[in-house]
Amino acid sequence: MNLQGTKRKITYVATYETLALLFGTLGFFSFSDSSLERSGALAVFGSLFSVSWNFVYNSLFERWEATRLTRGRGFGRRVLHAVGFEIGFLVVLLPIAAWWLEISYLRSFALNLGLNIFFLAYTFSFTWCFDRVFGLPSSAAATNDSAKVL
After folding, report:
1. H-type helices in the chain, by residue range?
2. Taking a C-beta distance cutoff of 8 angstroms, is the pair 97, 108 a contact?
3. Which of 24, 43, 47, 138 is the most exposed place for a label (fewest CB within 10 A)?
4. Comparing C-alpha atoms, which of 42, 66, 79 is closest to residue 141?
5. Rounded to an integer, what distance in angstroms lies between the CA atom of residue 120 and that of residue 90?
6. Would the pTM count as exceeding 0.90?
């Protein structure tokens, strides 16, 4: 099945976030002194932010990717994709988690770093599996047009 465009992005985000909400709630709850309710609320915020960030980030990444001479998604490009997403997410979630969970910025950083390491592997693995099931997006698919410019 080859899924493209907006349908691809919506399917990706919905599937990714459903699993991420569960993992995020469990992560915040397990590694903070906060209640399950507060941890869940923070995970819901993180998920809502992530949905919009995911859509924007993937659109920008695919626009950039379409300008590359090398097509496909090798290991390096997948790492770049996952790291870029997680850095953007960390910048927003770190201060919000410190405030909401009533913890120091240092503890929030450690908590978010642990979650980011987990989600870095999760994002990499999820995207690889998603591409295997639904095919590569047109921005990464092989083409006969070798005249693309950086």
Report:
1. 5-30, 36-65, 75-101, 105-134
2. yes
3. 138
4. 66
5. 11
6. no
| pLDDT for 20 | 87
| Span 107-122, average pLDDT | 86
- Tell me the three state secondary structure of residue 120: helix
Structure tokens at 82: 């996952």
Tokens representing residue 44 in the block: 């819901």
Residues belonging to the chain: 150
- Token code pair at residue 14: 């919905």
| Mean pLDDT, residues 30-44 taken together | 87
Q: Domain spans of the chain?
A: 5-134
- Give the chain's radius of gyration (CA, Å): 17
Helix (H) or strand (E) holding 99: helix 75-101
Amino acid at 62: E
Flag whether pLDDT at 40 surpasses 60: yes
